[in-house]
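wait is this the right file?? whatever heres the structure
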């Protein structure tokens, strides 16, 4: 009789202990949310942004990229146009001609430079604002809470389990 009771107690304890088993043993909890990996949190990068926010993130990243491109290549083009116009004015003076084509190129170069810097800064800032808003949302949802605790109950393969995370 003692052996039967001891066997029943051992079976009861072993069934209760295996109720928390979820396939493999790991010191880190397995949470099914986007961007989760071994330590529970992945930094916000391009792939994570596309996976969670989709076209909204792609549009913001594109605005940032085109804003930087406009601020880089626009002034270079405008300055090149102004230098070309100045060179045309110099060559006209040497030949004794009075043409105003060089002055128009200088003015057009200045307009291109100012417009590309203004538009590039606007695109770059609006893209960064949108990415910052997405990063704030991502961190509020998925970032680890330093002093947070949670109690979760759920079904496992062997029964029902409770998990206290702190």
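ok assuming it is, sequence goes like this
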């Amino acid at each position: 009789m003692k052996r039967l009771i001891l066997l029943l107690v051992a079976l009861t304890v072993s069934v209760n202990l295996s109720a928390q088993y979820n396939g493999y043993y790991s010191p880190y909890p397995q949470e099914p949310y986007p961007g989760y990996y071994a330590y529970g949190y992945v930094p916000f990068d391009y792939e994570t942004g596309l996976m969670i926010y989709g076209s909204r993130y792609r549009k913001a990243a594109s605005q940032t990229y085109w804003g930087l491109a406009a601020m880089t290549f626009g002034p270079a083009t405008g300055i090149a146009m102004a230098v070309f116009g100045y060179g045309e004015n110099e060559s006209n003076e040497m030949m004794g001609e009075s043409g105003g084509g060089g002055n128009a190129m200088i003015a057009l170069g200045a307009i291109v430079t100012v417009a590309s810097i203004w538009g590039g800064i606007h695109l770059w800032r609006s893209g960064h604002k949108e990415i910052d808003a997405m990063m704030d949302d991502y961190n509020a949802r998925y970032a680890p809470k330093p002093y947070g605790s949670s109690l979760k109950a759920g079904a496992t393969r062997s029964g029902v389990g409770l998990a206290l995370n702190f």
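Helices lie at 2-17, 46-53, 55-95, 101-142. so i think its the right one actually
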